[in-house]
Amino acid sequence: MDQENQIFGIRAIIEAIEAGKDIDKVFLQKDAQGELMNELIKSLKRNNINFSYVPIEKLNRLTKKNHQGAIGTIAPITFVTLETLVETTLEQKEKPLFVVLDQLSDARNFGAIIRTAVCCGADGIIISKNGAAPVNGDTIKTSAGAVFNIPICKVDHIKDAVFYLQGSGVMTIGATEKAEKEIYDVDLNIPLAIIMGSEDRGINPSVLKIIDEKAKLPMFSNIDSLNVSVACGAFLYEIIRQRR
């Protein structure tokens, strides 16, 4: 956790939320009690802020200051709304390209995907508010600073984002080994959003049911899947190949 983006203390985090700060993640001490802690938990839930319970030893490792059982991080970037991202992009481009990350949790994979997405001219990245990888120092470092060069949007539910994209005329395609088609057999020269799943579970089944298309990469060994950032790069460069 980056010291410069760290916020600690129950009251300080509550005030940051009320001030409209983009809180990326909050760690709460297991079994912590008290009226103020309950107020913080209610505020986190009300504002859909990602939080988890951890042993006090972890909190003590994160800071030597008096954390009162609560430490959070303020995101180093400002997130955009889904409506602003999609509408603004569609006004400017005939064939936009969005990357949707469904519960991707590793900050380094997130950073690598951001870097590739920027290199490939993607117009925005959409992630979920809960369970997604944080935008932290690891993300910034792995992205080589590219995180500051592409709009990132947080949504309550990936399904709602898929429905909104579809309603805006954007085709949604999911990367999954369960697909019958290979990515090379799908027309990608259209308004497009690619959906990448989490490292361990892939795309949520409820999301897979509603997307327009599914595609896979050919595999020539008994290893059944690639690292998600590598797979995303392969998808993005096939999109470039078809659009050139």
UniProtKB/TrEMBL annotation:
<feature type="domain" description="RNA 2-O ribose methyltransferase substrate binding">
    <location>
        <begin position="6"/>
        <end position="80"/>
    </location>
</feature>
<dbReference type="GO" id="GO:0005829">
    <property type="term" value="C:cytosol"/>
</dbReference>
<protein>
    <submittedName>
        <fullName>23S rRNA (Guanosine(2251)-2'-O)-methyltransferase RlmB</fullName>
        <ecNumber>2.1.1.-</ecNumber>
    </submittedName>
</protein>
<dbReference type="GO" id="GO:0032259">
    <property type="term" value="P:methylation"/>
</dbReference>
<dbReference type="Pfam" id="PF00588">
    <property type="entry name" value="SpoU_methylase"/>
</dbReference>
<keyword id="KW-0489">Methyltransferase</keyword>
<dbReference type="InterPro" id="IPR004441">
    <property type="entry name" value="rRNA_MeTrfase_TrmH"/>
</dbReference>
<dbReference type="InterPro" id="IPR001537">
    <property type="entry name" value="SpoU_MeTrfase"/>
</dbReference>
<dbReference type="GO" id="GO:0003723">
    <property type="term" value="F:RNA binding"/>
</dbReference>
<dbReference type="InterPro" id="IPR013123">
    <property type="entry name" value="SpoU_subst-bd"/>
</dbReference>
<dbReference type="GO" id="GO:0008173">
    <property type="term" value="F:RNA methyltransferase activity"/>
</dbReference>
<dbReference type="InterPro" id="IPR029028">
    <property type="entry name" value="Alpha/beta_knot_MTases"/>
</dbReference>
<keyword id="KW-0808">Transferase</keyword>
<dbReference type="Pfam" id="PF08032">
    <property type="entry name" value="SpoU_sub_bind"/>
</dbReference>
<dbReference type="GO" id="GO:0006396">
    <property type="term" value="P:RNA processing"/>
</dbReference>
<dbReference type="InterPro" id="IPR029026">
    <property type="entry name" value="tRNA_m1G_MTases_N"/>
</dbReference>
<dbReference type="InterPro" id="IPR029064">
    <property type="entry name" value="Ribosomal_eL30-like_sf"/>
</dbReference>
